[in-house]
Amino acid sequence: MQAIILLTIGFTALAGLTFASRSTDLLNRNVTEGTRLSYLAGTIQSELLATVNRVSTGALIWEEGRQNLSFANQQFEDDWKTYTAALTADEAEFIEDVLAPGLAGVRSAFIELERLFRNENRTNLSLFVINDLDELVNPFLNALLASSSERQLASARTFAESLKSNNTFLYASLAVIVIGVILAGVIGYMIYRSIVEPIERISSTVHSVTEGDYGVRTELSGSDEFARLGMALDELLQDKVTTLVDAEEENERLNESVLRLLEAVARLSERDLTVTVPVSADVTGPVADAINQMAEETGRVLTRVSRIASQVGASCATVNKKAEIVNATAQAQQLEVERTASQLAGASNTLVNIAKVARACNDSAQLTTETTQAAMSTVHGTLESMNEIREAIQETGKRIKRLGERSQEITAIVDIINTIAERTHVLALNAGMQAAAAGEAGRGFAVVADEVQRLAESSREATAQIASLVKNIQVDTNDTIVTMDRTISQVVEGSRMAESAGQQMTASQNTTASLVRSVGEIAASSEQQARISNELRERASGMLSQTQETSKELVEQLTQTKNLVQYARMLVQSVRVFKLPTQARS
Question: Domain 285-418+460-585, what fold?
Fold first, then answer.
């Protein structure tokens, strides 16, 4: 009887174990298939999509992208062959109907990406990522995820059925054990514990994972099916946790890079061109390098503008000093001409008296000779002074023309600054497009792009102000040049009149000598001399008027030169609102 009971217990236990083994094999197959589907999805997400995004944002060079893409393609094909090789005929037919359409899209995506990586065109790559990549890859990924979910549900159903059947066989065994011997009961209980405990651990682990606890593990060990199933589940959970941790660390690094960019852009918006942004290896690296290059080039150009403005100021100061000297010389010349006119008037009166008083003709003629000689010396001095004035004015005109050429150089530099601002504006637009393509992760990057665009607009406004100031300087310079040319013409005319006066003085001196020798012709010669003296007085008056006009023009020139000095100072002050690098400034 005991043998029959033991045989009954054995057959009952054997049937339960056989059913449990079948259920376990089916559950193991479902879990293994779900794991392989997860590997396929992980290969697409972590290898394919990550490589495409890093190449699109510039974090990877084209050569590295091609290598990673080739590796991802090979890995995907190997995983797919491994997965399909383990399928039964019915499962293979089901997979052919569900995953084959999406598989063609994934392979087409690999082929198109290989072509785009060979062409090395990020614009076409970005358009493909935005418009086509999701349509090619997502159907396969969604099918994978759906199949994985179905495998999980099938595993749960298999587990529930296995648990129910095991309980049935357990109760039957317990009924026999109650009738049978204590040994059969102990053996049945041990069999029960060996089956139910691993299943409960797996069930508890799956339940915790569905509630979001990814840190839980089955912690099963051994070589039986339940132990292998538990270890496979633990490995799957560990891979998922590792992927989540890596993604979180990558987001932290990206946030730190974006914060550094925001700080640098804030300093640039405060006109601090000494800022240097650390260049990292993530997506913000090209933007940081572009900001550093823009700040360096802008600082170098503004330093040149400041240096040229200082040179313009120095040249204007020199021109101002020369103009003051010329003005002082003209005033002295005016006094000399006034004295000459006064002397000519005295000579004319003397000649009239000679005509009336013939008795003192010799003395008067001698006095006239001396007076004429003094007047002639004065005229020669006047002529020499006017020549000096003409040379000084010509030198001043050359300096003012050089000043105009300097302002042209400033205009060219301002154009360079404006070009840099335009390129920065284009860079900000491209950065905005990249940020929009990045989605939620590129929101901080979009803020940086907006700050860079506002900085470019501020630079263009500053260059417009500098260009307007330089234009005013050029206009005043041209007016000064015109005034200088007019002054030179007047000085030349004054020199010609002074030379003519000298010739008249010579004629007067000869006439006076003739009076000394020929007293008998004193009356006629005195009348002639009186007329000549009157003409000389008129010419002297004309010279005085010309000298006064020259003095007015020189005063106007001095005013224009002072305006140039003031404009040069304003230009220097406009440039100094920027904080330039110490090395460039020195």
Answer: Helix Hairpins (1.10.287)
